[in-house]
Amino acid sequence: MHHYPAEPYKIKVVEPIAVTTREQRVQYLAEAGNNTFLLRSDQCYIDLLTDSGTTAMSDYQWAGMMMGDEAYAGSRNFIHLQETVRKYYGFRHIIPTHQGRGAENLLSRICIKPGDYVPGNMYFTTTRAHQELNGATFVDIIIDEAHDSQIDLPFKGNVDIQKLQRLIDEVGAERIPYVCVAVTVNLAGGQPVSMENLREVKKLCSAHGIKVMFDATRCVENTYFIKEREAAYHDRSIADILLEMMGYADGCTMSGKKDCLVNIGGFLCMNDDDLYQRAAELVVLFEGMPSYGGLAGRDMEAMARGIEESVDYHYIHHRISQCRYLADALAAAGIPIVRPVGGHAVFLDARAFLDHLPQDEFPAQTLAAQLYLESGVRSMERGIVSAGRDARTGDHHRPKLELVRLTIPRRVYTYAHLDVVAQACIDLYQRRHEIKGMKMVYEPKLLRFFTSRFESLD
């Protein structure tokens, strides 16, 4: 029998959660247009929509919140955050932002010219949107195996070096402002990138004068997988591996709402002095002063302390183990999931789960809606709806992966909660062929998965 570690924390504050009836959930879902993003939190029993900003902060972080220095410039909390980022991530310059997409906006505006290409190891929704809005074309350079949910590889998020080299040869290095490497890769199922692969990417990019910028949102989770799966790192600490890993980048965007263990905040990092000066000028327009960037001093203090806590092995080991616990329960029941299990979520393979539905009937969106109806568990679509439309043809992007993400918030739920989630998925799977698809009845132009509305074809 596999051993799952107990929670490395004890509970001192509790928050009641909603217990609803199926009749209530039918009404709530109809009002939300069958989009789980449009449900209210108090209508959800176990909320696995996202791990972004849903962390339970520690007593150490809450104590830091009481030490907020709300000076307009030069806050001591910013100095603490700057020192902490330099210590654990190694970058010289940091610009706080209100969250990760604020950093994506700054990076895209500073670096991208119309006609540029930005290669990355699979797209992420807001990242690609910022790149395209500033005139770039996103090019997927992840290994092919990442697009197959059933292939089990230790580092399924790796960059395909040959794909990157071909793009450089085709368009020229001068038209590639940077390579965007996500560590881990969210839309592939939270898949990590190996240290060996990061070294290869950095070596190739350095030879052509191309910057490497990490999407470092879940970098600690990536570090855990390197420690576990690359022999040379078994005996290294999480902090040591993280520092080396970041050394293969020229900078990063960070949503602190994930691996920095806070409810709000992010930052943009870089080593280049000129890039920093340009970012420091632009952040004043969109966020605030370079020493707070849209954050209160107390939020920066909580983030600095969260970074310290995030590199504790017992914390990250338990986090990964919770994902594996849920995945093992689902796999034992024959439910199709993305393999191997990633670091922040378990991804249901909606294409295989609802194999009678064509992709144009939105199987992942349908499955997320049905899971809520079944149990009150809120999840997220990660398939054709999230992929959006091709700006040139107007047709849907049709990703090979059609997924529902069961995202586990940090330090929030217990194994007992995950048992409820597993049983709900199992019950739904047993009557899966009764489920009808959906049609989209409202679609915004950008990031449609947030606010689109759907109707059942039943």
Automatic annotation (TrEMBL):
Location of the Aromatic amino acid beta-eliminating lyase/threonine aldolase domain: 47-423
Gene Ontology molecular function terms on file: tyrosine phenol-lyase activity
Protein encoded by which gene: tpl
Modified residues (N6-(pyridoxal phosphate)lysine): K258
Family (UniProt): Belongs to the beta-eliminating lyase family.
Superkingdom of source: Bacteria
Assembly description: Homotetramer.
Gene3D superfamilies: Aspartate Aminotransferase, domain 1, Type I PLP-dependent aspartate aminotransferase-like (Major domain)
Protein name per Swiss-Prot or TrEMBL: Tyrosine phenol-lyase
Presence of the UniProt keyword Hydrolase in the record: no
Keyword Repeat: no
NCBIfam families: PRK13238.1 (NF009709), tyr_phenol_ly (TIGR02618)
Organism lineage: Bacteria, Pseudomonadati, Pseudomonadota, Betaproteobacteria, Burkholderiales
Pfam families, per the entry: Beta_elim_lyase (PF01212)
Cofactors, names only: pyridoxal 5'-phosphate
Protein EC: 4.1.99.2
Catalytic activity field: L-tyrosine + H2O = phenol + pyruvate + NH4(+)
Cross-referenced SUPFAM superfamilies: PLP-dependent transferases
Keywords, comma-separated and alphabetical: Lyase, Pyridoxal phosphate
